[in-house]
Amino acid sequence: MATIKDVAKLAGVALSTASYALSGDSKVSTKTREKVLEAARQLNYRKNGFAMDLKKSRTNTIALILTDLSGPFYSELIRSIQDVALSNGYDLIACSSMGGEDSTAVRFLLEKRVDGAIVLAHNITDDILRAAAGERFPIVVMDRPITGDGLVNVLVDGEEGGYRATRYLIDQGHRSIAYISGPANSYDNALRYEGFLRAMREEGLEEKAKWKLSGSFIREGGYKATKMMIMQGELPSAVFYANDEMAVGGLKAFEEAGVSVPGEVSLIGFDDIQLAEYIQPPLTTIRQPMNESGSLAGHLLFQMLNGDQVEASYSLRIGLVERQSVLKVRNGVTGEA
Amino acid sequence: MATIKDVAKLAGVALSTASYALSGDSKVSTKTREKVLEAARQLNYRKNGFAMDLKKSRTNTIALILTDLSGPFYSELIRSIQDVALSNGYDLIACSSMGGEDSTAVRFLLEKRVDGAIVLAHNITDDILRAAAGERFPIVVMDRPITGDGLVNVLVDGEEGGYRATRYLIDQGHRSIAYISGPANSYDNALRYEGFLRAMREEGLEEKAKWKLSGSFIREGGYKATKMMIMQGELPSAVFYANDEMAVGGLKAFEEAGVSVPGEVSLIGFDDIQLAEYIQPPLTTIRQPMNESGSLAGHLLFQMLNGDQVEASYSLRIGLVERQSVLKVRNGVTGEA
DNA sequence: GTGAAAGCGCTAACAG
DNA sequence: CTGTTAGCGCTTTCAC
Questions:
Q1: pLDDT (tens digit, 9 = 90+) per residue, B194-253?
Q2: Where in this chain does the record put each HTH lacI-type domain (chains A, B) (predicted)?
Q3: A5: CB within 7 A of chain D nucleic strand
Q4: Which of A143, A83, A85, A144 lies closest to A115, judged by CA?
């Protein structure tokens, strides 16, 4: 690999002159610049990224850290962040936190291989986040509340979402409602569940212990939990799945058991994934404002990078997407037919 | 930010000793190591990633370059590559080539910010690829055939796929078949179209010019092209969409026009995206072996990184996924009813 | 304008 | 085992 030294030598100028010419500094004569550029071309010279970063101690790159790069759920979010990054002249890379402490993500954070980060990865501990963040290294955290120097939150009001979903079910006449839970250690799940409970309590409704099943946020989990519920005999008139993926799995379980949705049991989800619109029946769900939260996160990061002061926490509201998986009922029981 | 120098000073040892201690070299006494580690802890010291990379001129990171990070289509591919990278002790970052010449992706490639790359981004020119690749910088290209030093191809046989899709339609009795095309400059589209033509010719069938519409690989495009086809009056008995996204859009257009699928017109797609299984009717399509091609690409990259010799090009075969969007017909015309 | 020289933070010979 | 030293490739004063 040719270095700038080689270029300077070939062009017959000093190292610094080559550097100036290459970065388009105006204090180099056009003629000299041409000479340097020509030499660079001949040698197929490329700047070495690291040397540059090391020298400037800025990378012009921000990282988006996700639990799993392959989740389909993030499309919208990624796009909006990407837009903001691009329009600020920054590069965006995405990295996965799979592998925990030893993951790419943690290395990028701790070793400051980027200028800042947006994190949506529950397997990165608060400690790591606190250790990494600082005045010169802002981090926007989107999956938990956390405070500290250089740390800012962009959160979606999950409790409100859980409440809205449950409230909607109640308003449609449902009184026996089950909650299929996500992972026990998930902050998001906890919020949604709290909202569920608030709505239930408000109406003097009780959660039946045997309906409280866990499906760990994946389709298969929703499927199994629902199967179990069906096996136990007594069905609720509506079930609130802590996320859409589980609702999709649940729907399959009901279908296989010959239970009509929403005829016999109504379903509501959370997230509004792309699939939600396409399954039969289309899933009523709670929509997270991914676009808005993505651009907000991006903008905040750049403000911090510019040294501007920002609030420590931002909360976005959710919305209900009414489709066809919830049936209006009379007396709290959907009935046999 | 504390440097290794500060750590050494605080621990009262030489710079190199600190470096050795920090990287766990065995030639440092346990006691000294402890002292150094303690000093590092006190100063909240973190290695500077760039300095390390610059020195070692290796990053232990590979990049996956995608046109658009937010495409849902890549999930499986990303996962399989990620697995391979992780098990080789490498980090994987994903970056987008949006922005063309000035994109993050191009910078990472040209400035060698990673040790190698897997590319699936048609907006990165062959020239850039050739300029970036070399003996010390392997690139696996998955979206076009290209040869050169350090360049390897992993391709899916799109022509065969186009042929299989069309052949299937013909075998089901269809004789008037339309092809809704992807972007004119897409290599993938060209292959699929060629396969289509081969099957048509083989059977002595003609492509009707007015059915040759383009939908540029997006849902909206498929929708519009189909609308146009419907407006023109005469419908084919089957249509082959160059990808599933367009087929989804096309389905919507047919639905809106009250044309029954597959009753009046059969549909076949290409890619087998997640949605394909969930739409009504479930879409018959050509499946690309994403897992296989992802791991193959990953393995090849690491072999090249290790200096092993590999073939210049690998081709993977596709498969047909039979679902319910194609109807078997008698005489080449689906008929009015 | 141009050139010499001083590092950015780190690793790895090398000599003690 | 420990300390000295020479760079990795680049940018950027500071004199000329």
A1: 999 999 999 999 999 888 899 888 899 999 999 999 999 899 999 999 999 999 999 999
A2: 2-56
A3: yes
A4: A85
Q: Give A-chain residues touching B275 at CB under 8 angstroms.
A: 274-275, 278
Residue B284 located in a structural domain: yes
* Residue A301 in domain: no
Distance of alpha carbon B245 from alpha carbon B223, whole angstroms:
10
Q: Which residue is closest to A72 within chain B, CA to CA?
A: B72
Which pLDDT score, from 0 to 100, does residue A98 have?
A: 83
Total domain count for chain B? Answer: 2
pLDDT at position B298 is 98
* pLDDT per residue as tens digits for the range B63-104: 999 987 776 667 788 889 999 998 998 999 999 888 778 788
Q: How far apart are CA A266 and CA A283, in angstroms?
A: 10
CB contact under 8 A, A112 and B49: yes
> In the 8-state DSSP scheme, what is residue A134?
B
Do residues B216 and B329 share a domain?
yes
Residue A112 has its nearest CB partner, among B46, B107, B274, at B46
Angle between helices A290-305 and A75-87 (to 10 degrees): 30
Among residues A236, A257, A256, the alpha carbon closest in space to that of A326 is found at A236
Domain edge (last residue) among B11, B26, B56? B56
Calculate the CA dihedral of residues A322, A199, A270, A236 and round it to 10 degrees.
-80
Query: For residue B130, what are the CA distances in angstroms to A122, A172, A290, B126, B151?
Result: 39, 62, 38, 6, 8
Whether the CB of B74 is below 8 Å from some CB of chain A: the reply is yes
Contact in structure between A141 and A121 (CB atoms under 8 Å): no
Residues 36-75 of B with CB under 7 A from strand D: 51, 54-55, 57
Instruction: Check pLDDT > 80 for residue B334.
Output: no
Domain that holds residue A12: 1-56
Which residues in range 54-113 of chain A are in contact with strand D, contact meaning CB within 7 A of any of its atoms?
54-56
Would B265 be classed as within a structural domain? yes
The reported pTM is: 0.86
Indicate whether B324 and B187 sit together in one domain. Answer: yes
Same domain, B34 and B173: no
pLDDT in tens, A147-182: 999 999 999 999 999 999 999 999 999 999 999 999
> What letter represents residue A208's amino acid?
K
Q: Give domain status of residue B252, yes or no.
A: yes
Nucleotides of D under 7 A from a protein CB: 1-13
Rounded-to-integer distance, Cα B269 and Cα B246, Å: 8
In this prediction, residue B37 carries a pLDDT of 93
Same domain, A197 and A324: yes
CB-based contact A93:A114 (threshold 8 Å):
yes
Strand partners, A222: none
Nucleotide closest in space to B31 (CA vs C1'): D1
* Block mean pLDDT (10 aa), chain A, length 337: 91 93 89 92 92 91 88 79 92 88 89 94 92 93 94 96 98 97 89 97 94 89 96 95 96 97 97 89 94 96 94 95 95 49
On the question of a cis peptide bond just before residue B262, with omega within 30 degrees of 0, the verdict is yes
Q: Between the CA of B55 and the C1' of D4, what is the distance in angstroms?
A: 18
Nucleotide nearest to B57 (CA to C1'): D8
CA A45 / C1′ C5 distance in Å: 24
Identify which of B282, B269, B276 has the alpha carbon closest to the alpha carbon of residue B192.
Answer: B269
Please tell me the predicted confidence (pLDDT) of residue B336.
41
